[in-house]
Write a structure and sequence with these properties.
Residues 1-29 are annotated as: Disordered. It is found in: Cell membrane. The protein has 487 residues and is mainly α. The protein has three domains: 31-217, MFS general substrate transporter like domains (Growth Hormone, Chain: A, Up-down Bundle), CATH 1.20.1250; 237-285; 287-487, Growth Hormone, Chain: A (Up-down Bundle), CATH 1.20.1250.20. It is 75% helix and 0% strand. It has 22 helices and no strands. It is globular.
């Protein structure tokens, strides 16, 4: 396929005096600490805010006198804003420059933290979460676009270890989020969960302004052949609006699979049809459907990533609820049981970053999902602690390997001038998996987590694991993709 090969060829043609950034110290040339520090700081803001709120929801509900169904919107609002914001801001980063998008995102995170910390009403608190979702959504696609630009500048592919650090920052921050949120809520009140974003975002903002290289040409992005890309007028705002509207309707439907809102399917279908029509006729569409039709490898990567995280989130949310309601653990002890999942995810993320290939780690990830699901089928409310820890660890392995593997695949398979939007769509697939998982848990558990409900999740997981393994082994493009992403 031509698209994945473009970055390597382009790297030799686009380096030169005009593209040089300020000289980095010895040992930091290329993908050094100055470039990576702000990118890593920005990349952790979204995942940590996705999980940090969990341990503050009860206190928020008590203060505003709202129930669990209402506080759930604080979670859903950010997922929705992030799912729309990631590819949208990735598109903007590809067109006007990733540094501008990164800086704008950190400013929005500061504003959201201040609004949430001072919000006098529950409605404004939800608004702050929406702004937080949009602001934190800027960092990851901007980081991926900036790494591609640096790859072109130095004339070599981005090392897998560098991509692995971005993935590890997301995994580690998501893992510590609930603990940090609980600590802040217990010591300083739930508003500190919002206020902590201000110093974190300011640190990312200052380091970004000081160390990130300026965007090239100001008004134009750089394509694979070194020519100026599309101008500011090519952002396709109508396509972005259609995408956001269709995705919003779809997510509102997915949020309540236990009580389906069937009327939402009609506007979702209409909006999706109009979106497809518009993207096919637009000269520079927001989502290049023709490219995706040609680039089967990239489309399959999105499918694999979404399915993997559908299962991972089913276990993350469903297993933790079962530990508390069926096994009798406290929330604190349930969190301790899940520690092997976080630890295994971090270790496997590092291991995946050091692996030259992509196909083998993804196959191992699918096999572990199948094995973990088999263990869940055997669990009962009286199962011993060691078995519970093994089950948690088995699902941590694919979390780390799938994250780094699919991230590296997207980086290699995306068009050279569209890596930001492509990376954003990868995260959108992940968020769709998360929202669908939450809905499936409600559907399978009902009012309370039970052994039967956990076993239903396990059977679903085994089926998805088999499908993922088949998709991975059948994808011949993964045999060569890995060699194009390793420096």
């Amino acid at each position: 396929m031509s698209a994945p090969d473009a970055p390597d060829r382009a790297g030799d043609r686009t380096t030169g005096p005009a593209q040089r950034t300020p000289q980095l110290p010895s040992g930091e040339a290329g993908f050094g600490a100055r470039l990576m520090t702000p990118l890593l700081l920005g990349s952790l803001l979204n995942p940590i805010n996705s999980t940090m709120i969990a341990t503050a929801l009860v206190a928020i509900g008590q203060d505003f006198r709202v129930g669990a169904a209402d506080t759930a919107w604080l979670v859903s609002a950010m997922y929705l804003a992030s799912a729309v914001g990631q590819p949208s801001l990735g598109r903007v980063a590809d067109r006007i420059g990733p540094r501008r998008v990164f800086v704008g995102g950190t400013v929005a995170v500061c504003a959201a933290g201040l609004l949430g910390a001072l919000a006098p009403t529950f409605t404004l608190l939800i608004v702050s979460r929406v702004v937080l979702g949009v602001g934190t959504a800027a960092a990851y696609p901007a980081a991926m676009a900036m790494l591609r630009a640096e790859s072109l500048r130095v004339g070599r592919p981005t090392p897998r270890a560098v991509l692995g650090r971005i993935s590890l920052a997301a995994l580690a921050s998501a893992a510590v989020g609930p603990t940090l949120g609980g600590l802040l809520a217990a010591t300083a009140g739930w508003r500190a969960v919002f206020a902590v974003n201000i110093p974190l975002a300011l640190l990312a903002l200052v380091s970004g302004l000081v160390w990130l290289p300026p965007d090239r040409n100001g008004r134009k992005s750089t394509t694979a052949d070194g020519a100026g890309g599309a101008t500011r007028g090519s952002l396709d705002p109508f396509g972005i609006a259609l995408f956001a509207s269709a995705l919003t309707c779809a997510m509102f439907f997915l949020l309540r699979l236990d009580a389906p809102r069937w009327p939402l399917l009609a506007p979702t279908a209409v909006l999706a049809a109009v979106l497809v029509w518009w993207q096919l006729r637009h000269p520079q569409p927001f989502i290049d459907l023709r490219m995706l039709a040609r680039n089967r490898a990239l489309a399959l990567t999105y499918l694999r990533h979404g399915l993997a995280y559908l299962l991972i989130y089913c276990v993350l949310y469903g297993f933790s609820q079962w530990l508390e309601q069926a096994h009798g653990f406290s929330s604190f002890h349930a969190g301790l049981v899940l520690l092997p999942m976080s630890g295994a995810a971090a270790i496997c993320s590092l291991a995946g970053a050091r692996t030259k290939g992509i196909r083998a780690p993804l196959a191992v990830a699918a096999a572990c999902l199948i094995a973990g699901s088999a263990v869940l089928v055997l669990l009962r409310g009286t199962s011993p602690l060691p078995v519970l820890l093994v089950a948690a660890a088995l699902f941590g392995i694919p979390q780390g390997l799938a994250s780094t593997g699919n991230q590296a695949a997207v980086y290699a398979q995306a068009p050279a001038d569209g890596v930001g939007a492509a990376a954003g769509l990868q995260r959108t697939a992940q968020y769709l998996g998360a929202i669908t998982a939450a809905s499936l848990i409600g559907l399978l558990y009902g009012q309370r987590a039970t052994d039967a409900g956990l076993h239903a999740i396990a059977l679903l997981g085994a089926a998805l694991g088999v499908l993922l393994l088949a998709l991975t082994l059948a994808d011949r493009s993964l045999r060569t993709t890995g060699s194009r992403t390793v420096g």
